[in-house]
Amino acid sequence: MPLRSLDQSSKLKHVLYEIRGKALQEAARLEAEGHAVLKLNTGNPAVFGFEAPHQIVRDVIAAVPQAHGYSESQGVLSARRAVVTRYETEPGFPAIDVDDVYLGNGVSELITMVMQALLDEGDEVLIPSPDYPLWTAMTSLSDGRPVHYRCVEENGWEPDLEDIRAKITPQTKAIVVINPNNPTGAVYSRAVLEGIAEIAREHSLLLLSDEIYDRILFDGAQHVPMASVAPDLLCLTFNGLSKTYRVAGYRSGWLVITGPRDHAKGFLEGITLLASTRLCPNVPAQHAVQAALGGVQSIAGLVAPGGRLHEQREVAWTGLTSIPGVTCVRPDGALYLFPRLDPEVHEIHDDARLVYDLLVSEHILLVQGTGFNWPTPDHLRIVTLPEARVLADAVERLGNFLASYRQ
To answer: Is residue 14 pLDDT above 90, yes or no?
Structure first.
C-alpha cells in the first residue's frame, strides 16, 4: 500500500524566514566543498570572536550541577529579580515585580507564546516594514494577519504615524515596535514613540516592544523604552542576553509586562498557561541573567568611539556609501546596515537571486531586503559583526560585484 502524501501545513504558506533561507543551504554546500563563506546573514556574535563576559560563563558553570531539574515555569526567581532591578534604573519605566517577568528560551520563544495567547483567526497585528521577520511569521502561524506599516528611509527609518493610523481596522489588536530596529539600525525618537502610544491609546491596542538591542547604541543615541511613554497602557517588553551580552546560544530572554491588566486577564492567563505547557526555560542559561545584568556593562566599551562595534559600523557604512548607486542611512544602534540599491543604477528585479549570485561569485552571504517584508527588491541587510578589515574587504568585493552585475 502506498504511503499517504504528507505536505507541510497550510499555516506555513505565508511564513518567511530568509535569514536562514535557501541561500544558506547553498552556503553549506560551498563550505562542504572546502570554500570559506563569510556569513553576514545572522547577528551571531560568537562566530566573529566576541567572547561571552567571563562572569556569565563562570556562573553558568557553577550552577550546572544544581540545574538539572525543572524551575518554576516563569523562571528562576533570582534571575527574574535581576530583571526587575535592571528596569528600576530605567528613567520613567513603570514599577514591576517578579510576577511581571517571564523568562524564555530566547526572545523568539516568548514572541511565539504571546502571539499564540493573543490571536484568533483574522485578528490583525501592525508590524513595521522592514521588520524582523519572526514577528510576521508568528502572527501568521497563530492564525493572525500581519499588517505592515511603513518606516520612512528618508526620515532615518522612523515609523510613519499616519500610515499606522490608516491601517487600523476593527480587527487590529496590537502594534509591534522594534527599537532599536533590526534590520535598519534606527533608534526611534521619543516623539515618535509617544505618537505610537497615543494611537494605541485611542484604539485600545496592545503594545509589543522588541528592545533586544537597547544597549547597542552609537554616537550618543538614547533608547527610550516604550513602556516609559505608555505607563497607562498594557505593554509587553521583550529583551534578552543574545546581543548585548554576546551569548546568543544560551537562548536566554525575558518578557516584562507593564500597565493595566483587568481588561486582559484572559490573555495574560493564556501566557501563563503556555509558559506552563513548555514546563520552564532551560535552567542553566537562566543562571546567566543575574551575572549579566549586574556590575560593569562591557557593551559600553564596544559601542563607544574606538570600540570594536563602533569602528566596524563606521568602516562598513563608509564603504557602502562609496559604492556608486548605493545609499545607506547611518544606523544609530543594533548590528546591521540596510543599504539601498538605486534602481536607476542597479536594475534588480529579484533580490533573492542577487543574494544567491553574490554568494556563488564572492562567497559572501547577505539577506535580501524583501526577506524583512520590505515591498521592493532594492535593499540588502549586512551584519556588522566581523572585524573592520574583514568588513572593508567584503564591502569592496560587493561593490566590484555590483559594478558588472546585471539581471
So the answer is: no
Q: Choose one of 258, 293, 328: the last residue of a domain.
A: 293
Are 293 and 59 spatial neighbours (Cβ–Cβ below 8 Å)? no
Q: Is the pLDDT of residue 190 over 80?
A: yes
CB 376 within 8 A of CB 360: no
Same domain for 64 and 38, yes or no, is: no
**381 φ/ψ angles, rounded to the nearest 5 degrees:** -110, 135
Residue 343 pLDDT class (50, 70, 90 cuts): very high
Asked whether residue 283 falls in the same domain as residue 383, the answer is no
List the one residue out of 369, 317, 328, 308 whose CA is nearest residue 41. 369
Whole-angstrom distance, CA of residue 178 vs CA of residue 278: 26
Indicate whether 295 pLDDT > 90: no
The CA distance from 212 to 254, in Å, is 10
* Residue in 117, 382, 138, 137 with CA at minimum distance from that of residue 267: 117
Question: What pLDDT score does 232 carry?
Answer: 97
Residue 16's pLDDT is: 67
Q: Which domain holds residue 396?
A: 10-50+301-404
- Name the 3-class secondary structure at 368: strand
Q: How far apart are CA 193 and CA 174, in angstroms?
A: 15
- pLDDT by residue (tens digit) across 96-120? 999 999 999 999 999 999 999 999 9
Residue 35, domain CATH: 3.90.1150.10
From 45, 6, 38, select the one nearest 23 (Cα to Cα).
38
- Residues 349 and 345: their CA atoms lie apart, in Å, by 13
Count up the domains in the chain and report the number: 2
- State the first-to-last Cα distance of the chain, in angstroms, to the nearest integer: 47
If asked whether residues 23 and 68 sit together in one domain, one would say no
User: Do 231 and 126 fall within a single domain?
Assistant: yes
Average model confidence (pLDDT) across the chain: 94
Provide DSSP, 244-309.
TTS-GGG-EEEEEEES--GGGHHHHHHHHHHHHHT--S-HHHHHHHHHHHSS--THHHHHSTTSHH
Q: What is the pTM of this model?
A: 0.94
Positive/negative CA dihedral, 13, 16, 18, 19: negative
Q: What angle do CA 402, 405, 407 make, to 5 degrees?
A: 130
